[in-house]
Amino acid sequence: MPSVPQTAPTAAEQARTLTEHGRVATLATVGGDGAPWASYLAYALLADGSPVLCVSTMAEHGRNLVDDQRASLCVLDQTPAADPVETARVTLAGVARRARDTDEEAAARAAFLAAHPGTDFLDFHGFSIWIVDVERVRWVGGFARMDSADGASYATATADPVSPHAAGAVAHLNEDHADALLLIARALADLPDAVSAECLRCDRYGMDLAVTRADGSREWPRVGWPQRLDEPAQLRAASVELVKQARAALA
Amino acid sequence: MPSVPQTAPTAAEQARTLTEHGRVATLATVGGDGAPWASYLAYALLADGSPVLCVSTMAEHGRNLVDDQRASLCVLDQTPAADPVETARVTLAGVARRARDTDEEAAARAAFLAAHPGTDFLDFHGFSIWIVDVERVRWVGGFARMDSADGASYATATADPVSPHAAGAVAHLNEDHADALLLIARALADLPDAVSAECLRCDRYGMDLAVTRADGSREWPRVGWPQRLDEPAQLRAASVELVKQARAALA
A69 and A95 in contact (C-beta within 8 Å)? Predict the structure, then answer.
């Protein structure tokens, strides 16, 4: 079996991928009595992944933040799963604060306007820009796919340039190249008795497969690309390369 | 101008319509240190609209609920707006509790399984059914459309059978019957100088229009159906009846 990098995205990378590609979140704040309050709102990200909110004291969450700056945001994958219960999501938890200086305020405003170009309320009375310093991250990719990260890992992680745009490639692999996927599963996932293989998702490091074996049991192996990908257009060549490796291994 | 009922859905009805048609929510709970935590999960509804959750103590929100039962859920419209920032949503806030007796537990389990037929973890160790007693409701229908309701109004409100299924009818009215909408705006919305009219949405009580007047100004009138509708299939006849009334009024 050829040596194929098996790196999987970290929880921090998965989280950053979701937050970079989203524009709306549900925010949890606490009221004066300490009770939680869930509300939906627009967000943007600073360069380090810190969420930027534009919040009004006319809204309950805005009044909550003035009194207690602790905040948590849940962001959903922009590509919902077939069953929405399985949609990937991330929770960020931390503390909201106003910008530290005019430079940071300008950067936060610019980020918000870039993510929400039509926004005309930034200067309305009662609206303020808040920045959330992320302390904890919990990523849930779906059933039995979940992990945690700290704020520092999240801040330094980069979003995956491939996975949010891979749905078409995944569908194409499953519809037109089931034989190739089976070959990959047999040769590169150490499952020589595989009888069918489906690609579940692709990211910059590799692909996740769902494999059925001859005895009817199921496996969910990961197969890495020969090299890390930088853009979705490289998925095709990477898949072809894996098939070549698989053929060579089985020859 | 003929007398047309102008009733609009109440905030409680709007809220109930969103929660009855949704299956997933973001839950806000508080941790032991009082900090908020936003997480995504499946829910179902009891007959009075109380959310039913199936929560594991393996999850942070499950551990939070054991210590502090205060909870808030945010549910989004299943039909996202063109700009997701404008998607309609509702926040429910209240207190979560275990079922009061075996009958209520059975009803809650049945509701959860009906909403999520594939659920196989109800009896897993650590999973429990929780019921949220709703105390406060905040509905946000989009820009400048929002209102509050109390738990009692929410519990007795019924979901709108028309609005969640009206998108096709709204598109059809705008694409093929712009003249009829303009007639309705002029005759039934008291805007004789209207030059164009777009239908924004329909519900069991009527439709919301966006109207441009001769001087370029914009109005957002509501026009009620002659009778309350019980199903989406009645939208066509109700629209035809409005046009008849409009023609008669302008004759």
Answer: yes
A81 CB near a chain B CB, below 8 Å? no
Task: Kindly state the average pLDDT of the residues B23-37.
Answer: 97
Residue A91 forms contact with B (CB below 8 Å): yes
- Which residues from B are below 8 Å from A25, CB to CB? 38
Query: Which parts of chain A have pLDDT scores under 50?
Result: 1
- Which of A189-193, B3-7, B159-163 shows the lowest per-residue confidence on average (mean pLDDT)? B3-7
Tokens at residue A114, please? 């870039």
| Interface contact A116, partner B, CB < 8 A | yes
Q: What is the mean pLDDT of chain B?
A: 94
Contact B34 A39 (CB under 8 A): no
pLDDT for res A39: 98
Q: Say whether pTM exceeds 0.90.
A: yes
Answer yes or no: do A71 and B26 touch at CB < 8 A: no
Task: Determine the residue of chain B that is closest to A89 in CA distance.
Answer: B40
Q: What is the pLDDT of residue A121?
A: 79
Q: Is the pLDDT of residue B97 over 60?
A: yes
Residue-level pLDDT at A5: 58
Helix/strand/coil for B206: strand
Q: B114 CA to chain A: closest CA distance, Å?
A: 14
SS3 for A71-89, per residue? EEEEEECCCCCCCHHHCCE
And the tokens for A5?
A: 């990098």
Q: What is the pLDDT of residue B227?
A: 93
The residues, any chain, with a CB within 8 Å of residue A226's CB and separated by 6 or more, are A4, A5, A238, A241, A242, A245
Q: Are B53 and B29 in contact (CB under 8 A)?
A: no
Which residues in chain B are contacts of A89 at CB distance < 8 A?
A: 39-40
Q: Encode pLDDT of B104-130 as tens digits.
A: 999 999 999 999 998 887 787 789 999
Total CB pairs under 8 A between chain A and B: 114
pLDDT at A4: 58
d(CA A134, CA A51): 8
Interface membership of B71 toward A (CB under 8 Å):
yes
Distance between CA atoms of A246 and A184, rounded to whole angstroms?
5
Q: What number of other Cβ atoms are within 10 A of residue B145's Cβ?
A: 16
pLDDT for B126 equals 82
Min CA distance, B166 vs chain A (Å)? 22
Name which of B39, B56, B89 to mutate to probe chain A: the one with the most chain A Cβ atoms within 10 A of its Cβ: B39
Rounded to the nearest 10 degrees, what angle do helices A178-188 and A167-176 cross at? 90
